[in-house]
Amino acid sequence: MTPETHTTRPELASEVVKRCALSTDALRLLQPDEAPQPFFARLVREELLTDAVQFAAYYLTPREAIWWGCLCLWQVYRTAPPKRETEVLNAVARWVVEPDDARRLAARAMGQASGNNTLASNLARAVFYSGDSIAPPGQPRVAPPEGQVAHCVAAAVMLASKTISYELSEACLVHFLELAGQVSRGEASWQAEELRLPTPPDDGELQHA
What we know:
globular; disordered C terminus; 10 helices; about 55% helix; disordered N terminus; about 0% strand; mainly alpha
């Protein structure tokens, strides 16, 4: 398994805040020695949704954060999933379920094949950065840039919220943040039930690619 998949969550909200860039308004809400969960809830309650997305992406473990991204994208694509996005998401989800290096590299390759400019390719990059080296196999170790997993997940979630329509983006973010809370509490885990990956549609069924 890749090293970052077993990292524990920070015990204090202030530890998470040090890792991510939050707005001044968000920082004003931070209480000394506060646990992450109440601070996250306050961000949502005060409608600082972008800050809440950033905070959640850095608070969850890499494996949990990437799984959260999968759940968000499945919500967006559940009525008509593009074939390429479904294939990339499935590769990402397979890594979440069994995070070994072969699946990490497979997710990256699938994301690159999709053009590296889609919602799911952000999650594929997050999977790639979760490993202990971003160098090609057999080459000397090159550590991934710090914070790239959370950065890629947050980007995917933010972009996903605007996929349906800009008018509904705020409502989407609220729902996505509810999913983040469920993931953090173990209520929406990849282990909760047998994972059934979506089947990519045939080319003739695609409504958009």
